Amino acid sequence: SELIRGFLLSGMPCPSSCPPGLLALMAPGLALMATFSLPSQAGDRRALPVEKPPGVKGRTLILLDVNTKSPVRIISENFLSLQLDPSIIHDGWLDFLRSSEPSAPRTSSPARGAEPGCSCAGFHRRCGAAAAWRRWDGQRAFSLLGLAISLFSFPFAVDIVRSDIALDKQKGCKIAQHPDIMLELQREKAAQMHLVLLKEQFSNTYSNLTLTARSLDKLYNFADCSGLHLIFALNALRRNPNNSWNSSNALSLLKYSASKKYNISWELGNEPNNYRTLMGRSVNGSQLGKDYTQLRSLLQLIRTYSRAHLYGPNIGRPRKNVVAFLEGFMKVAGGTVDAVTWQHYYIDGRVAKVTDFLKTRLLDTLSDQIRKIQKVVNTYTPGKKIWLEGVGMTSAGGMNNLSDSYAAGFLWLNTLGLLASQGIDVVVRHSFLDHGHNHLVDQNFNPLPDYWLSLLYKRLIGPKVLAIHVAGLQRKPRPGRVIRDKLRIYAHCTSYRNHNYVRGSITLYIINLHRSRKKIKLAGTLRDKIVHQYLLQPYGKDGLHSKSVQLNGQPLAMVDDGTLPELKPRPLRAGRTLVIPPLTMSFYVVKNVNALACRYR
Asked: What family name appears in the similarity comment (predicted)?
């Protein structure tokens, strides 16, 4: 039940020295990023071909160095962020959200996931197709027509189990425990609702979902007591006869929230390029830009929100028509939003196979999308922050024993590497807990493989991205065949919030998609340094389909409901060659490098 706590408190700065993180309660997701680069380009993942000496066959020796003088990118400290699906309102999990007090002693819990001390977590966003069906009905109830809820994380703990979150910070955020029988009944209810929601998703027909004022109070108090920042996506589907946005519902909600002095950031709708499917008529980018301008004007009329952050347009995959939509939006409202947002799902979860997660061509699809988004944004608002505000390995809710398995981690870790190396400021993972199979924990709140992967990332990876210099021995490709590298290496400064490592240390993370082991020799500034290895492999007989993982040969599992296991590294002697097993993911902290780029924040 401490899973979010462990994640949020991993390697984040104290509230006095960092901006709030965002934990978006919408349907999109989070990500981990890094890059394999040549000496001249930080984002290129191709290894530098070197002529093979006579007699060397089938063996790859990689010489690896890192540019330690200056970072090639600096991403947000809230880079890796989480979402909660809106279905937690529908299926009853909202009433089981729990916030632990900042003085809580359980610093090793899964949701805490960091060394003791202050921290800021990433964004938590909530949306998805269901988020398009929310509104304020005048009776202090919100129908879920285009509502999104996002939570920026501050330094406290967050539990999702066994508590009533009708909390009041003025009263010390005390929590009420639920008996086990209530939790079991809730699981049964959620399982039944899971089938209903999947049916709606596959048929693309959604029922209204009412969020009462009491529910909003619960959400906000949960966020506030947990040190999170709430982001709320307003209903964009309420339209006037001329197709302009009808803001009366939103204004009522804004006034209510302001009367409670709720510190909230805002969005408007979700995947607006799909509104024709949802409501039978479309909204173009120019019109949505006008709607965002109207929302900004409303916010400025309310003192509490005159300086509130506004994010959007949260478009879908940037195909040709969606790129045109974004261009229309940016022309009108590019200067209105604080960050430009979009979503990405790699493959249809209904037809995915385990081999799909090993295809380098699939891993590289995100790069093209990033370039398309950046081209449009930089044309109209150069330097504007870009967020991937919804990412999942599979769409359509994912597939059991696949999108929640070890194999999905290859896509996830590579996503983090690509985004960080290409300057995307924040990525929001879909989702921490929902009705599908893209989540980080199961219905019993047991961590899934991507949770442990994300937790290690939070603990070990800092916001400074470093360029990698690679040379090696490779087999000659067959004539006319495209070389696509199956060994992906990314480097960052080690998180300065991890007190186990002095500033100036460097963390590598490596994806080996080969079916054979690969050897890496650290060179240059990394030569003859002590290395700590964190090797993640599937645990059990299910192999890549496994929902359990082992760290350096030891299975990872919760010690109890409130305690994370210790994530122990395996020390490697100075100068030792790194041996990367086949089909694995791993982190390597190179200690005491004294990298100039990493000495200071």
From this structure: Belongs to the glycosyl hydrolase 79 family.
- Radius of gyration of the chain from its Cα atoms, rounded to whole angstroms: 23
Residues found in the chain: 601
Per-domain residue ranges of the chain: 62-129+175-598
How far apart, in Å, are the Cα atoms of 442 and each of 34, 125, 158, 191? 27, 19, 16, 12
SS3 content of the chain, % helix, strand, coil (to 5): 30, 30, 45
Cis peptide bond N-terminal to 313, omega within 30: yes
Among 136, 165, 45, which Cα is nearest to 467's? 45
Q: How far apart are the first and last CA of the chain?
A: 32
Question: Is residue 568 pLDDT above 70, yes or no?
Answer: yes
Are the C-beta atoms of residues 386 and 424 closer than 8 Å to each other? Answer: yes
CB 273 within 8 A of CB 315: yes
Residue type, 589: V
The CA-based angle 100-102-504, given to 5 degrees, is 120
User: Distance between CA atoms of 357 and 438, rounded to whole angstroms?
Assistant: 14
Cβ–Cβ under 8 Å, residues 589 and 492: no
> Which residues sit opposite 151 in a β-bridge?
230
Cβ atoms 187, 58 nearer than 8 A = no
- pLDDT interval class at 47 (50, 70, 90): very low
CATH numeric code, 62-129+175-598? 3.20.20.80
Strands, E assignment, 474-599: 487-494, 506-512, 518-522, 531-538, 549-551, 554-555, 570-572, 578-580, 584-590
Among candidates 134, 7, 83, which has minimal Cα distance to 390? 83
Query: Which residues are paired to 56 by β-bridges?
Result: none
pLDDT band of residue 219 (cuts 50, 70, 90) is confident
Tell me the C-alpha distance between 508 and 494, whole Å: 9
- pLDDT bucket at 197, cuts 50 / 70 / 90: low
Reference 230, options 217, 243, 241; nearest CA is 217
Helix (H) or strand (E) holding 311: strand 310-315
- 55's torsion region: left (phi>0), alpha (psi -120 to 50) or beta? left
Residue entry with tokens 């909204």: 283
Dihedral, CA of residue 279, residue 280, residue 285 and residue 286, to nearest 10:
-100
Cα(546)–Cα(558) distance, integer angstroms: 17
Q: Give me 323's structure tokens.
A: 């790129």
Nearest residue to 376 via CA among 338, 337, 326: 326
pTM for this structure?
0.80
φ, ψ dihedrals at 170, nearest 5° = -60, -25
The residue type found at 79 is F
Output the six-digit token pair for 485.
Answer: 């590298």
